[in-house]
């Protein structure tokens, strides 16, 4: 079992920045990829960014050049630095941990609100 605890969300003005953190605990050695997804009501959850244990990254087109994902394996923590935030980035962000055998764990979600 893996537990994920997210922090760092909140309210920011358009053009501002936020940093999300997600700390994993439990059977962390089983984790390969970690990442962030976001989900608007009545829409599928979509990938924002993900990073492998070897620091290979993948980003959604909508956030390329504005968001940066990073990872501290010693702390079992993944970060999402979000810059140049837009109103359309407003939604709930979920931390994800994918194990080597492709099982997914999810955090409870954290609200990010960008005011115009």
Structural account:
It is a single chain. This protein is 0% helix and 58% strand. The chain has 116 residues and is mainly beta. A hairpin with a 4-residue loop joins strand 9 (91-99) and strand 10 (104-106). The radius of gyration is 13 Å and the shape is globular. It starts with a strand and ends with a strand. The mean pLDDT is 96.
Question: Helix and strand layout, with pairings?
Answer:
Blueprint: E1 2-7, E2 10-13, E3 18-26, E4 31-39, E5 46-51, E6 57-59, E7 67-72, E8 77-82, E9 91-99, E10 104-106, E11 110-115
Parallel strand pairs: 2-11
Antiparallel strand pairs: 1-3, 3-8, 4-5, 4-9, 5-6, 7-8, 9-10, 9-11
Quote the beta fraction: over 45%
What's the order of the H and E elements? Answer: EEEEEEEEEEE
Quantity of strands, as a count: 11
Continuous helix count: 0
- Whole-angstrom Rg: 13 Å
Shape: globular
The description of the largest β-sheet is:
7 strands, mixed
Estimate the helix proportion, in percent.
Answer: under 10%
Structural class of the secondary elements?
mainly beta
Q: In terms of per-residue confidence, which ranges show pLDDT below 50 for 5 or more consecutive residues? A: none
Mean of pLDDT: 96
């Amino acid at each position: 079992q893996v537990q994920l605890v997210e922090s760092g969300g909140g309210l920011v003005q358009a053009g501002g920045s936020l940093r999300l953190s997600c700390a994993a605990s439990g059977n962390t050695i089983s984790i390969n990829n970690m990442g962030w997804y976001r989900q608007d009501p009545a829409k599928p959850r979509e990938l924002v960014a993900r990073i492998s244990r070897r620091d290979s990254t993948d980003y959604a087109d909508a956030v390329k050049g504005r968001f940066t994902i990073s990872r501290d394996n010693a702390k079992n923590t993944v970060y999402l630095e979000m810059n140049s935030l837009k109103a359309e980035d407003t939604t709930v962000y979920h931390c994800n941990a994918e194990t080597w055998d492709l099982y997914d764990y999810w955090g409870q979600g954290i609200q990010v609100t960008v005011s115009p």
